[in-house]
Amino acid sequence: MIPHVITSSHSAVLVLKKLLGPELAGKVRLKNGGNWDGAVTQTSSRMVNRLDIALVIGPSKKPSANQREYDKLRVYGFLRHTPLAALLRVFFLRTPPEGLLFLDPDIIRQLVGREPTPEQFARARMRPRKVLAELLEVKPARVATALRPRLEKVDLTPLLSSVPDLRRLRKFVGICVRRYEARLAREVEDFNKTV
Q1: Cα(96)–Cα(39) distance, rounded to whole angstroms?
Q2: Which of 39, 41, 77, 176 could form a disulfide with 3 if both were Cys (CB 3.0 to 4.6 A apart)?
Q3: Which of 47-51, 68-72, 89-93, 129-133 has the lowest mean pLDDT?
Q4: Which domain of life is it from (predicted)?
Q5: Can you state the angle between helices 10-20 and 143-151, rounded to 10 degrees?
Q6: What's the CA gap between 166 and 12, in Å, rounded?
Q7: pLDDT tens digits, residue range 27-64?
């Protein structure tokens, strides 16, 4: 089955789609889990279908000294009973995926047309959708709709060089896509032999 990338919101799906680029994003299913717990639950339920899955999430709560370790224990504790865990990669980002946009002031300036305040940059680490809603002057539920056309015009490749997890995500998705395409080719070949 086609590889999946699961994350926590519609706007996170848009950011990851742009970061994967058309060569990869068009060959995977990007799924919105609705929130942190929903993304983990969807990952678990889809693994029974033998899917290659990348779960991409930020912290589940406000960062604390041990939050990253707590999140890892929570996710892997939930997924450890899954016999197909070898098909899964979890990417724990230090911010929700939309927060990656705030790592490069030039990118966020291109997206919203102005410079965020230092306070907005600080809040964007944990609440990037809320800050994006303020900057785009829309309700938080409308961030994805407002962000979609703006993301098309912005080059996010500078983020790839500054966030190692994004390079690892692209590499993993590339491997999954090649494995999926090879499996399809074998199935077609086997079908043609029987016809």
Answers
A1: 12
A2: 176
A3: 47-51
A4: Bacteria
A5: 20
A6: 13
A7: 999 999 999 999 988 888 887 777 788 889 988 877 67
What pLDDT, on the 0 to 100 scale, is given for residue 83? 63
Order of strands across the sheet that contains 53-57:
29-32, 4-7, 53-57, 88-92
d(CA 53, CA 90): 8
Backbone angles phi, psi at 53, to 5 degrees: -130, 140
Residues 1, 50: contact at Cβ < 8 Å? yes
Structure tokens at 162: 């500054």
- The residue with tokens 């929570």 is 74
Task: Look at residue 137 and tell me whether its pLDDT is greater than 90.
Answer: yes
Residue 24 contacts residue 170 (beta carbons within 8 Å): yes
**Is the separation of the CB atoms in 88 and 66 below 8 Å?**
no
